[in-house]
Design a protein that fits this description.
By secondary structure, this protein is an all-alpha fold. It is 86% helix and 0% strand.
């Protein structure tokens, strides 16, 4: 069960990184800011919704991984 738990934890971390990317510029990098300015409001909203869904799935995977790792 520890192997399955480790895999779930790894996948959860990957999805959290993907969610951060979907939510847009959060680190203050100038290149990221220029790309973010070019996006339309509709595209930003779509990416934010996708990011929130990815974050929720990632949290679920992390919790599952921790529970499986403890078994």
């Amino acid at each position: 069960m520890k192997t399955a738990g480790g895999i779930f934890i790894f996948l959860g971390i990957v999805l959290l990184i993907m969610a951060k990317v979907e939510l847009g510029n959060r680190d203050g990098n100038e290149l990221d800011a220029m790309i973010e300015e070019r996006r339309t409001a509709e595209e930003k909203e779509k990416n934010a919704k996708r990011g929130i869904r990815l974050a929720l799935i990632a949290i679920g995977l992390l919790l599952t991984g921790v529970l499986l790792f403890k078994l």
